[in-house]
Design a protein that fits this description.
The complex is a heterotrimer of chains A (297), B (323) and C (240).
Chain A (H helix, E strand, L loop, with lengths): L6 H32 L6 H19 L7 H26 L2 H23 L14 E4 L2 E4 H23 L1 H11 L1 H6 L4 H26 L7 H15 L4 H21 L5 H15 L13
Antiparallel strand pairs in A: 1-2
Helix pairs in contact in A: 1-5, 1-6, 1-8, 1-9, 1-10, 2-4, 2-8, 2-9, 3-4, 3-8, 5-6, 5-8, 6-8, 9-10, 9-11, 10-11
Chain B lengths: L2 H16 L10 H25 L7 H17 L5 H6 L8 H25 L2 H20 L11 E2 L9 H23 L1 H11 L1 H6 L4 H27 L1 E2 L1 H4 L3 H13 L6 H19 L4 H15 L8 H8 L1
Antiparallel strand pairs in B: 1-2
Chain C lengths: L5 E8 L7 E8 L4 E5 L6 H8 L7 E6 L2 E2 L5 H6 L2 E4 L11 H8 L3 H4 L2 H11 L1 H5 L10 H13 L5 E5 L7 H16 L4 E5 L2 H7 L2 E6 L2 E7 H6 L1 H8 L4
Parallel strand pairs in C: 3-8, 3-9, 6-7, 7-8
Antiparallel strand pairs in C: 1-2, 1-4, 4-5, 9-10
Helix pairs in contact in C: 3-7
Classes of the chains: A mainly alpha (297), B mainly alpha (323), C alpha/beta (240).
Amino acid sequence: MFNLPPPDILFQLSLNGALGGAMYGVAAVGLSLIFGTMRLIFLAQGAMIILAAYFVRALFYGLGIDPFLSLLIVVPVGLGVGWLIYQGLFRKAAAEEDRNVSLLIAVGLMFLVQNLMTVVWGGNTAGVVTSYTASGIELFGVRTSFTRSMGFLIALAGTGLVMLFLRKTIVGKAVRAASEDMDSAMLMGISPHRVNAIAFAIGIALAGAAGVAVATTFPFNPFAGFIFSLKALVALALGGIGNVTGALAGGILLGLIEAYVQYFISGGWTNAIAYGVFLLVLMFKPEGLFSRPYKKA
Amino acid sequence: MSRALQWIAIVVVAALALLPFLPGAVDAYYFSFLFFVFLYAVMAQSWNLVAGYGGQISLGSHAFFGLGAYTTAILWSGNYLWGSLYDAYPGIYYFDPVTMLLGGLVAALAAVLIGLPLLSKLHGDYFALGTLGFGEIVKVLFVNGGDFTGGAFGIVAPASSFDTLRPHYWVGLGLMVGTALAIRALMRSRYGLALIAVRDDEMAASANGIDILKVKVAAFAGSAFIAGVAGSLYTYYIFHVGPDSVFHLDWMLLPLMMTVVGGTGTLLGPILGALVMYAVFDLARIVVPDYHPVISGLTIILAMLFLPKGLTRLGVMRRLKSA
Amino acid sequence: MANRLLEVSDLEVAYGDVGALWGVSLHVDPGTIVAIVGANGAGKTTLLRTVSGLLKPKAGDIRLAGDSLVGKAPQEIARMGIAHVPEGRGLFRQMTVLENLELGAFQPKARSRTRELLDKAYTLFPRLKERAHQKAGSLSGGEQQMLAIARATMSEPSLLILDEPSLGLSPLVVQQMFALIQTLHRQGVTILLVEQNIHQALKVAGYAFVLQTGSLAMHGTGAELLADPEIQKAYMGVLE
């Protein structure tokens, strides 16, 4: 059907795919947390990522703050914004357990953020160009983009920190417990609002980190976020909904699929094939590709 | 529905039907406004059938809308059906009910094909995600469809016969009223009871001998049929059907929003929601053109924060219903 | 009634078609085991879920040591001293045994003493110590029920609520379960127990209430009810 390319090209392809996919992964980790406790598909996640990218750009061109250094500002701000978004917008709907309402608030927020960005920064494609934007580094004998590699590192570090929080702290354990069974968690004295707010805070902080990665690697526009949300959803499903490391792995896998489809078939089919894989996984392995088969007694 | 509400509905529909005879009405702004309210109300009913009454949140309405729109555009531009009729009476023979029906059927068929595997395997959010993925796949298929679908540009229909919006208006009104009446009849039938039973408690419904999958797929297909017919009507209005226009997510998100704002699982909710939300959007577009999507986003959030149960469950409506 | 730990008065709950309650009143005194027995769908689980705040009552009052629980969220009620082991155990199956126990001591007053409480729980349930790092879902049914009870005791509750602890367990494990309930009772834990295994429940309970289709049919000491011919006819016949 097609000729296999030489190994170095194949490797280059895989590396680029994996590095790019890590960005979907980090968005998916945020979605996974929010979905876990609230059972909400937070469709505005992509818009929040682009908002963070614009913020990073403003910090760079306005105050001369290096995009990677701005992580120190963007992540804490993201935590605070996430907390506020939950308390202001979702708390009431979560209390009434009306999932349609939460979903629609997320959609409304997406519209609002997208269009606020258009009003403030215009609808054109923007980007961040630094002295190192075009520079490359050698990784495993293959040249690749420095910023993409940094994005990958940010994704790894972000997911790692979240994992540590979830596994090692009692509050993190409470978040996991609430994701598994909210009723039982409440019987332990865990407040749903508290874990929901924490999930949102971390989710938006991760969107901030992803925003830094996006700003430094891709040109973006206010409406690019929705596709990002969809890709993050695919990554989430591939990794298994509610599985944090799986979400990152799912993102990387999606990046690989996209890179291969683009090379071997055509760029026009990447989305269809990515969503096709998504549907198949949802139907035949809804617990995700990376979870060990777990017998439900 | 109470007797009072029935009379109000009949009077309103009659007034709307007679409106095009009012001098100047056809050229007035509110005329096309009403056409779009009808169109969105039909789409909202479609979503309400599967999600409100059926309890299955579908995020794929735009795919069925687009399928209906493309079916119509392909049949129409290719003269596949009674092409001679178009040629012979271009001014008279404009809306083709058979084409519209086929638009709906193609969408319904797609819904059955995708619904059988999805609904037998996926529940709740997984089903919602699956339909979202399905919508994106259909869109890519049409972008890559070559000459048959016109690729990324789409298909332009023969526009020669267009001279007035009146037929669109009446067809739209007819569809809105017809859909509402059909759903009302449906929900009073055995099938409607089964649908509600499945929504409220699948286990109990199944224990009572209801074939859950059949009921769900039927609701999904019915919803798709309505969306397909609405897409067909849109083709007759817009002439140019392209993947980015008819498969736009707005065709899913806006009807969903309108239904929830109006009141999910109610007959009048989708219509009321379509009227109010489209009015807000359109007003914002006219008054603050630069900010209108911001206002739309804000409206949704505010509506959900303060009116989470929808307009039809407000006190005024309740009193009318019980009157 | 100052000495009543739990006081339920004229409780009415609407809950779907099954399990509604119509004007139920009962009470639990400190240091006792109280059983609620009755057939399937009599409203036993509904009653417990209302006490712990998972369901909202339509009317009536529930007081814990004099403080009303009505309108309070489940997590607040848990912090006030009620530990509820729900039907089906409500374990976090994907988390380890140790994590489940730690979450049992999530509330502030217990959290600072997690170590000490953990040691205490392990003394009572040595099996759980061996399995500390296994996932809760991988335990056997009996071990899962032990874990659920151990987790509930981690908060040192003033009232321990057990919903069908013997459900799905083998007869031998059921024996162990009831022995354990008596051990906890001797240690001073107040227990409200719902059981379909009426014979066993009445044997361990100091006092019992019989629920029938949402209302109170009878109440008395465990021994009285065990000897009651009507109870024997209605409930025990099927068990022997």
